Amino acid sequence: MKKKSARLLAIIMILVVAILSVTGCGRSGSRFENQLPEISITSFEGWTPDNVPANIDTTTYEYVFQQKIYWHGTDADGVISGYAFRVLDENHNPISTPGYKYLASATDNLIPEEMLTNFGEGWVLHYLPSADQSLALDDPEADRTIWTDQKYAEINFPAANPDGAPMPTISSFEVVAIDNRGGISPVPAWRKFRTNSKRPVCIVNTTKGNPHGGNVGSGITLKFSMTYPDSLNLLIDPIPSKFEFKMMKVYDDTGEIVPDTETDWISTEDQPKIDEYRLTSKAEPKLVFDYTEEGISLGTSTRVIARAMDLASVYSEFPPSASADQLPGWEMRFKVKPGFRPRTLIYSDKILALGDNHFETRKDNSTEEDLPNTIVQNEQRFATPLFQDMQNHKTVVHSNNLKLYVRWGYWGEYGDEDSEGNVSYPLDNPYIKKVNSVISEPDPEVGYPGGENYYGEITHFDIRYDGAPYDFPPFAESIVEDIDESGNPRQWLRLPISSPLRQSIVLTGQQLSIGEHTFEVRCVDSQDEVSKYPAVLTFYVLPYVAPSSRSGVLIVDDDPDNSATSPGELVYAKYEAMTADIPNVTVVKYGGNGASDTFADARNRYLAYSDLQNYKLVIYHADDPGNGGTIEAEVDGLALYVRKGGNLLISHTSQFASKAVDFTNKRAYTLLDYMGYPIDMKNKMGTGPQNPATGSFLQDAIGQLGYNDIGVQYSTHPDNVEQTQAFLPLVENLHGYAQVAYFLSPADGENGTVSYTGEPIYTYGCKAVDYPVAPPSQAQFDFYNGKVIGLRKVNNNGSRVYTLTYPLSIMLESQAKEFINQIWNELM
């Protein structure tokens, strides 16, 4: 046993000695010294003495100045942790290139000592990953390094002489690698290039186009662009290094330069945008007016010439100048004129409100954008414009969740271009092409009509609400003050056009307390001029009137004043007599017929819910069969009214059949439901004979559900005790009326689904077939007699809607009055 243990111990000792001899433990030597990384350039372009591409004569071959150079590093005993590169001129001096402007020097203490000794300085600087890049790379406080993990670089080699003319230029590119133990490539990888460029082409405009010698304001922004001629554009993108320009005055008659007006070359290199330069009359270089303050020309124009420098430091050149109306792209002329101001607009289609008492349940087709909306009890509700009430005020009815959306802009923000490229600038259409021109504000005080494009820009907006600067905490200190028309100081909140509000606000909560409110806004342009006439929105938030607090009757007269089939004064008198027993009756002439009792809002609606909600009953009549009225335009206000407990009586004619289809087409489903109709009214109604001479068959509206009969008024009607004549001769002569509509029922054939959910309250009382004056045939009698021509819908919220598809004004006054009194009693 002991012998076996001794042999095992001897074997272990032999193995240990063998391992130590292999690993070199305890011996000096270089077995674990770091092996330095190696670096090579893998792209094809460029040359070295040992690497000349095929078919390349290094004494004459020229590369385009912009080259992408790829490299690859390897490390036998570790990993590559970074690369450093630089560009050298023909004399081996480090040079900056566009995109790699900043180079490390020995004093920066960023170049390892070994690398500085072996290769020198001038290595490109880079930001560290966590660096604050608002600090320039040449700032000693910047977190920077010469090392990068890039594996290629796009180098813009120089290709110009000191004057900026194209000149083939020799440069070289070097790159080294560093490994994870700090070892640096002993020999850089490098390539030499002879590069060239063609002269670029420079074009100068303003950001709003070329004035072509016309008038501009005292604040414009020059806009530069650069391209290359011929095929060079196919090889590289035409990216400028900078633009430079000069300004001068020239005489209009000779084109010669006015002495002592030419500036030096002005560079865009340090501008926020290298292709733009803002000019004003207040900051150097100043725009100097070419007119007197009275608008008299001084006989001069302002001339701008421009040149571009590409990334190879080559300047564009100047061909010979042309006439003023055919200037080359690098030259622009204009006349600087005083007096221009921007015109501020509040877009009427974009003044929208949304709340429990102001909404619609379908997106109106007249609005070409997504509307603000919300969902209440599984019902989607959309914002809608403010109403215009009978005092010609913009109104909205208050609720705790009310919001008001306002969007403003300026004349010229939107334009309409015709087929020939001419642009017009409508004042209030934010749904056409956005062009961002600035069109001058009219000034009636001096007789100036405005309407000129003065090539300015909008820079800020000043806004006020209810007589004070609008409250917007992020810009609470941005307050400006001026003097109003009465000589009193006033303050505005000034917001840059790029502020979070942009060009809209949403008013909520206490901002929309009950009462009058005013929002004011004015533009500030690149001249630092403000609109002389701010855009003003005045509106009224009115309290909600509950059904129990409503009183009286509102009669909406939607009949024309002068019509042979519905004489305005006679119809007015008939409705006045019909409602004589009811207190507090208001009659308004509907504005759609040219009257002034009601006013159109932004959606061309004339009935404001804020007016309707004050009345216990609204009577709407369009009794002229040749006109029909525009009740379909009022679905918003009427829907709010009936769903908030309002009561509605409609008197109409045969034209109501098409109006009901209009309700469906406008997706006025809520109103249709409250009226007692299905949501699809297509093919749900019919019309009586449309030729009164041969189809005046209606003699009575036969009452149902306890409603009285109502006879057509003509002197021989059995119920016409006074023997009052009809005001329509045909009715008087033919003893009946023709142009009515009726609701279909199953008896009407293939379309005979019931076309109503309300209760029939009147049916067609047809003239007898043996009547002595213009009787119907038996078939006509059978078809028309008993048709439903009156409906009532009693809704769960207590509202009632009555629809008569015959005109009350042609009926016997006493019986029509009895019917209206019965309705009134139902509501009390």
Description:
The strands form eleven sheets. A nine-stranded mixed β-sheet has the order 37-36-38-39-46-45-44-41-42, with helices on both faces. Strands 23, 24, 29, 30, 31, 32, 34 and 35 form an eight-stranded mixed β-sheet that branches. It has a five-stranded mixed β-sheet with strand order 11-17-16-13-14, with no helix packed on it. The longest helix is centred in the first third of the chain and has 22 residues. By secondary structure, it is of the alpha+beta class. The protein has twelve helices and 46 strands. The relative contact order is 0.07. The termini are far apart. Strand 31 and strand 32 form a beta hairpin.
SSE map:
Layout (H helix, E strand, L loop, with lengths): L1 H22 L14 E4 L21 E2 L1 E9 L5 E10 L23 H7 L6 E2 L16 E2 L6 E5 L12 E11 L9 E8 L4 E6 L8 E2 L2 E9 L4 H4 L4 E12 L14 E2 L8 E5 L19 E11 L20 E6 L7 E3 L5 E3 L18 E4 L2 E4 L1 E2 L1 E2 L5 E4 L5 E8 L3 E4 L5 E2 L8 E2 L23 E8 L2 E2 L9 E5 L5 E8 L7 E5 L6 E11 L9 E8 L10 E5 L10 H11 L6 E5 L19 H4 L4 E5 L13 H9 L3 E5 L4 H10 L3 H7 L9 E3 L4 H4 L2 E6 L6 E2 L17 H6 L6 E3 L15 E8 L11 H7 L3 E7 L5 E5 L8 H15 L1
Parallel strand pairs: 2-9, 11-17, 24-35, 36-37, 36-38, 38-39, 39-46
Antiparallel strand pairs: 1-3, 3-7, 4-8, 5-6, 8-9, 10-12, 12-15, 13-14, 13-16, 16-17, 18-25, 19-22, 19-25, 20-21, 23-24, 25-33, 26-27, 26-28, 29-30, 29-32, 29-34, 31-32, 34-35, 40-43, 41-42, 41-44, 44-45, 45-46
Summarize the structure.
The chain has 828 residues and is an alpha+beta fold. It contains twelve helices and 46 strands.
